Amino acid sequence: MTSAMKTLAITELLGDGIGSELRESVHAVAKRLPLEIAFEPVDLSLESRRRDASAAYDAVVTSLARTKLGLKYPTVTAEESPNAVLRSRLGLSVIHRPVHSIPGVASIFKEQLALDIVRVAVGGTYDDPGQRIGNDVAVSLRIIERRPCTEAARFAFRFARAHGLSVTSSSKHTIQRATDGFFEAIVREVAAEFPDVPHRVELFDALLAKICLRPRDFSVVLTLNEYGDFLSDMACGLIGSMGLGASGNYSFAKSGEIDVALFDPAGGTAPDIAGRGVCNPTAALLAFALLLEHAGHAVYAVALREALLDSIATGKTTRDVGGSLGTVDFTARVCDALSRRIA
Ligand code: ATP
Questions:
Q1: Across residues 254-270, what is the average pLDDT?
Q2: Alpha carbon of 274 to ligand 1 centroid (Å)
Q3: What is the DSSP letter of 217?
Q4: In the predicted model, what is the mean pLDDT of the chain?
Q5: pLDDT tens digits for range 64-106
Q6: Is 191:160 a contact under the CB 8 Å cutoff?
Q7: pLDDT for position 127
């Protein structure tokens, strides 16, 4: 390692349950990379939040203002949802959720899936709790704003361009003309900036069927908040795994460039197995791979993903996916596979 190498500073948001075991796994992998990485831990555990929640969240915001790069471990949702607080404190407006088939993980779906779901992470029907009107009626407000839609669309088209993929935007614009129609109009404006990236529009109900029937036709899928939520879970179900994925969450500067990028594994805190050395670190390591790619180290990101997939495909994995290894032994296999790949 050269002294001229730029240190990669990463804010680590420590959580609860299996979080500390996932972190050990990430650190073991990080040590195998020819990079100088400085982890800046911030305690976001329930204990720390109960002691002084605003101090805990302030510390996250302060550290991320400097590093612009974060890795979050699972946190318990008790008084508040840390993910919701972070989304609002950091202005995270776009979620990127890759859902790719994992050879070796059992699924009743026989096709290969390789979706990159890009979702507007704010608004839709999710930001208004709604209200009851008398006994027989309830209403809620559906909010679609230009700024996050533009940010999500630009992210999707840039990602598609960088990886030679197409973009499918999806909504119910023929029925929800004002709201979804507005979204699709914004997507069309952004699409015009990327004439080299193929773009098509699908109605969301039809999209679900088409993904099940011909998954290879779809790669980057761009949606509003609630559709992205539904689609992510359906896609995870198809590949046989709710807990093996990871997401990137992004906020944007006024210039339109990404400001803060926060990566997290899909699974929860798994209190039933915490501290027993058996948790599967795959999702946390996939989150770390997404982070590496975002930080300009795509080569190491690809190597880490392949090292993980190889280890899972050979069946030498943790118990939840049919193997017999503990977290430390599985991590060691991934580390060795990674070292071989980047040698
Ligand atoms: P939370 O409230 O944080 O969501 P939970 O236990 O309700 O916690 P998950 O953490 O998603 O929800 O756990 C659901 C099940 O999946 C549990 O049986 C847990 O042990 C298992 N599980 C979750 N994450 C992992 C993991 N990384 N490795 C192995 N098993 C896991």
A1: 96
A2: 9
A3: G
A4: 95
A5: 999 999 999 999 999 999 999 999 999 999 999 999 999 988 8
A6: no
A7: 87
Helix (H, G, I), strand (E, B) or coil at 46: helix
The alpha carbon of 268 and the centre of ligand 1 are apart by a number of angstroms equal to 5
Quote the CA–CA distance of 164 and 257 in Å, as a whole number.
20
Nearest CA residue ID for atom 23, ligand 1: 270
Cα first-last separation, the chain: 14
- Nearest residue (CA) to ligand 1, atom 20: 270
Average pLDDT over every residue of 143-150: 97
Taking 50 as the threshold, does the pLDDT of residue 220 lie above it? yes
Which 8-state DSSP code applies to residue 120?
E
Spatial separation of the C-alpha atoms in residues 238 and 258, rounded to whole Å: 31
Among 320, 321, 330, which is best to mutate for testing ligand 1, by the most ligand atoms less than 8 A from CB? 320
Is the CB of residue 317 less than 8 Å from the CB of residue 325?
A: yes
The ligand 1 atom at the shortest distance from the C-alpha of residue 242 is: 11
Cα of 105 vs centre of ligand 1, distance in Å, is: 17
* Interval 118-147 mean pLDDT: 95
> How many angstroms is it from 18 CA to the middle of ligand 1?
9
Q: Is the distance from CB of 204 to CB of 228 less than 8 angstroms? A: no
Laid out side by side, the sheet with 8-14 consists of 37-43, 8-14, 69-72, 258-265, 246-252, 94-100, 114-120, 220-223, 167-171, 199-203
Q: pTM for the full model?
A: 0.95
Instruction: Please state the atom number of ligand 1 nearest to the C-alpha of residue 273.
Output: 20
Please give the average per-residue pLDDT across 117-127, as a whole number. 94
Return the residue whose CA atom lies nearest to atom 29 of ligand 1: 279
72, 75, 269, best to mutate for ligand 1 pocket (most atoms within 8 Å of CB): 269
Mean pLDDT within 178-203: 98
List ligand 1's pocket residues with C-beta within 6 A.
Answer: 18, 74, 76, 243, 267-273, 279-280, 320
- Positive or negative, the CA dihedral 81, 86, 89, 93 is negative
